[in-house]
Amino acid sequence: MEINRGYIGLTDPDWYDYLRRQLHIDEVNFWQPHAHGFGALSPGETFLFKLRAPHKAIAGFGFFERYESMPAGYA
User: Fold this and answer.
1) Which residues of 1-15 are buried (b: 16+ CB within 10 A; e: fewer)?
2) What is the DSSP-derived secondary structure letter of residue 60?
3) Whole-prediction pTM
4) Which of 1, 18, 60, 62 has its CA 20 to 30 A from that of 10?
5) Which residue(s) pair with 10 in the sheet?
């Protein structure tokens, strides 16, 4: 049995609801407010979206593709 690595990222419930309502979306941005890179996952590994309080539940998932550093205005 193969076990894949994954990462649980906390996300805002309103942001998640916005993304959920988009019909033709194939890419989402998980923004973090610090300058260091994201090395928790390799391409193809599972990224789980956990809603912040009061929900505190896994709401969805995706597959990590890449990390890009960019100014906050573009994120």
Assistant:
1) eeeeeeeebebeeeb
2) E
3) 0.78
4) 1
5) 50
Per-residue pLDDT of the chain (75 residues; tens, 9 = 90+): 677 789 999 999 998 999 889 988 888 877 777 777 788 899 999 999 999 989 999 999 999 998 888 777 776
Q: Which two tokens stand for residue 67?
A: 């990390």
Angle at 22 (CA atoms; ends 59, 48), nearest 5 degrees: 25
Q: Which helix (H) or strand (E) holds 69?
A: none
Of 14, 16, 42, the C-alpha closest to 29 is: 16
Cα separation, 31 vs 74, in Å, equals 10
